[in-house]
Amino acid sequence: MPEKILFVAANARSLIANRGDLIREMKALGHHVHALIPEYDFLPEVEELGITWDLVQLSRTGMDPKADLRYYRQLRRFMTDWQPDIVYSYSIKPVIYGSLAARASGVPMVAAMITGMGYLFTGESLKQRMLRHVASSLYRRGLAAADRIFFQNPDDLALFRELSIVGPEDEAKITRTNGSGINLERFPSSPPPMPPDEPVTFLMIARLLQDKGVREFVRAAEMLRSDYPRAQFLVVGPHDTMLPHALPADELEQWKINGVVSFVGGVKDVRPYLNESSVYVLPSYREGTPRSVLEAMATGRPVITTDTPGCRETVVDWVNGFLVPVKSAGALAARMKIFLRQPDLIDVMGRNSLSMAEEKYDVRLVNRVILEAIGLVEPLPEEDKPSHPAWPHPQGTAQEAADRKLQSQTQSVESPYPNPHSQPNPKPKPATRRERIEATA
């Protein structure tokens, strides 16, 4: 029987990019989907989802009790009138107030997605500590009202347990997902630009915030430019000075004048920039699961990111890229230099990124987990767990191959990362979860 499903959205952009495929699957199953979208950033592209929507007033930053109470009342009023069967909220304020409003309105299924900890949990200023205490208390109340709680990485779940935001009574509600997944058809793989024909291009896609690591990316590029003048460094993303921790405008202007890094600004479609890049870099301080990294992996790019919650889940060191300490421009530059000195690793590690995207982050697999958890499809039988990951290789062998390459630039080193999809397997394997989902589509 068709269900009425309400998305309480953090913003239009995330609804389209991160929830679009899930919404399309719900509609394909015959359900009616509606969204409540903050009016400050509505995008006409929402129409492409084929859903209905209403605009609500949501304060972007801070915790103004009057504004938040007004937001809660708007949500509850709409839920009481529309009477959804399922409410699905994501991001801090929609999760807190959406879950509370849904429970107060008698919604049968209340689902909350934790998409990352954001500004409040990436710093130790007095303001952040105070707001973090308030947010933890509100989160505790909101998630107590939820029937299903989705976490995109194990670190966020561990933190919620540590802060007692979720307790033993909530364990049956909790489901882990591999981020929001990535549509492999929308982001097909492509050969990366490679020397000697083309320079190595390092790409970063992010809003220009301090906690995204933009400053570290720029400093690493400055460290490398003199020795590698052909290398290219590119940042794609909008600069919104109204957001907490936005980069100072004068600092950004000085970087543009210096010209070491090119700043493109916000774009509607990042795929052309991914296709023109060699290596993807995201030195973020903390994420849920960074969508831009998944897009780069699907495109077949190696990734350099930080060994921090959310980011570390996407990279196996020396297999599909490198993990570096947070806030360390020097460590970032050292790992970028490896690709400049050994560009053959770009293709090798990029293919491993693609394999990981296919096996772990395919949006169909992620959406199936969500649809099963909220009762829209029947669970598939559990398959036997493989004893080792589907992607290739322990880091020791890769490290040794890289060291040998450094010692002798004239010696050709065979790739230590065979593509798992090209290896013959004479033994018949049971159908994978992906194959069973495809068979039932």
Describe this entry's structure for a reader.
With 441 residues, the chain is an alpha/beta fold. The protein has two domains: 173 residues, Glycogen Phosphorylase B (Rossmann fold, 3-Layer(aba) Sandwich); 242 residues, Glycogen Phosphorylase B (Rossmann fold, 3-Layer(aba) Sandwich). It has 14 helices and 13 strands. The strands form two sheets. A seven-stranded parallel beta sheet has the order 3-2-1-4-5-6-7, sandwiched between helices. About 10% of the residues have low confidence.
Relevant terms:
about 450 residues, alpha/beta, Rossmann fold, 2 domains, 7-stranded parallel sheet, 6-stranded parallel sheet, 14 helices, 13 strands, globular
Summarize this structure briefly.
The chain is 40% helix and 14% strand. It has 441 residues and is an alpha/beta fold.
Gross morphology? globular
Can you tell me the CATH class of the largest domain?
Answer: Alpha Beta
CATH-derived topology of the largest domain: Rossmann fold
> What Rg do the Cα atoms give?
22 Å
